[in-house]
Amino acid sequence: MRDVLLLLPDFLLIVVGFLVCRYTVLNRPIWESTEKLVYHLLFPVLLFDSIVRNPLDPAEAAALGGAGLATVTVGIVLAYGLKYWRGADPLLHASGAQVAFRFNSYIALAMAERLGGAAGVAQMALLVAVCVPLCNAGAVLPLARHGGHHLGRELLRNPLIVSTLAGLLANLAGLTFPEPVGTTMQRIGQAALPLGLMAVGAGLQLGGLKASPSLAAALLALRHAVLPASALAIGLAMALPALQLTMLVAFAAMPTASSCYVLAARMGGNGPFVAGLVTVSTLLGMLTLPAWIAVRLWAG
User: Fold this and answer.
1) How far is CA 33 from CA 15, 50, 188, 232, 263, in A?
2) CA distance linking residue 95 with residue 42, whole number of Å
3) Per-residue b or e along 158-194, where b marks 16 or more CB atoms closer than 10 Å to that residue's CB
4) How far is 160 from 166, CA to CA, in rounded Å?
5) How far apart are CA 236 and CA 94, in angstroms?
6) Taking a C-beta distance cutoff of 8 angstroms, is the pair 52, 204 a contact?
7) What is the pLDDT of residue 151?
8) How many whole angstroms separate alpha carbon 4 and alpha carbon 116?
9) pLDDT given at position 165
């Protein structure tokens, strides 16, 4: 119950976004613009600022980052394997595979603060920094192959990859900013979480899942069952410290990224199918995320 209450305020922001979009003049076109603002500016600044503000311990970063990369790799391999699912439509698979291993960074950082305070945010920011490039490369590859896009160009244009790599380089170089600049970046980043969570709610829709319910179920099972279980096993095998293990399992149990829809639509994929997956994943996360945190605490 305690974990559910910790998560409740952030999930209520998702509900607020849904209600505002459906029942006020602030309808879908406004939230589409908000998604672009968050995706291209607010969230990249948040990632960059979070990474720069938290010095990285090489040994700690290697262990936790390695566990995160191993977890994401499990997801990518299994998601790609669903390409051979009987009757799987190539376009639907290319569009939806990313849902199985990408994660909602807005919720991840918000949850990290509630579960672990500043130390939790720093560790989750590390996981985000290390795993976002791999997740986005894994997401772009099937769509680029299917739609004839240039993979390298798409990766270089991805604002989350650019901001995380820039943050890591700045951190390792010991770069600091004057207080007015640092405060400005921090305030821009703070706007990303509430707007990002409300934008997730505004985009909730289910109809597209009718295209392939079995593929959708398989992808969601990977996202909400297989990946958290893999993260727990990997973290225990690596004997990660308690807070790191909690952050790793929470990271793996996150709902999928709301930007999955943006990426699929921009690269010629099946947008409605991905929107349905994002919607169900977000709703499932309200139940499975607290459950996996409880499992992690039980496991010791």
Assistant:
1) 19, 24, 16, 37, 15
2) 25
3) bbbbbbbbbbbebbeeeeeeeeeeeeebeebbebbbb
4) 10
5) 33
6) no
7) 65
8) 15
9) 83
| pLDDT-flagged residues of the chain (< 50) | none
Predicted confidence at residue 297, as pLDDT, reads 85
Instruction: Give the pLDDT score at 92.
Output: 92
Kindly tell me the burial class for residue 16, based on how many C-beta atoms sit within 10 Å of its own C-beta (0-12, 13-18, 19 or more). middle
pLDDT of the residue at 1 = 52
Rounded to 5°, angle at Cα 180 from 176 and 184: 95
Instruction: Kindly provide the b/e burial profile for residues 64-96, where b requires at least 16 CB atoms within 10 angstroms of the residue's own CB.
Output: bbebbbbbbebbbebbbebeeeeebeebbbbbb
Dihedral (C-alpha) 103, 107, 113, 115: value to the nearest 10 degrees?
-80
Tokens 């500016």 — which residue? 41
What is the separation of C-alpha 299 from the centre of its chain, rounded to a whole number of angstroms? Answer: 24
pLDDT the model gives residue 138 = 92
pLDDT at 235: 95
| pLDDT the model gives residue 44 | 86
Reading the block at residue 57, the tokens are 């311990």
Given the structure tokens 């990660």, which residue do they identify?
240
The predicted structure's pLDDT at residue 6: 59
Query: Nearest-5° angle of CA 59, CA 60, CA 63?
Result: 85
DSSP secondary structure code for residue 223 in this structure: I
Q: Over the chain, what is the mean pLDDT? A: 85
- Give the dihedral sign, CA 289/291/297/299: negative
What tokens were used for 168? Answer: 């890591």
Structure tokens at 85: 């699912």
Q: Which two tokens stand for residue 18?
A: 């849904």
Per-residue pLDDT of 157-185, as tens digits, reads 778 778 878 888 888 888 889 999 999 99
pLDDT score recorded for residue 239: 92
Q: What is the pLDDT of residue 21?
A: 93
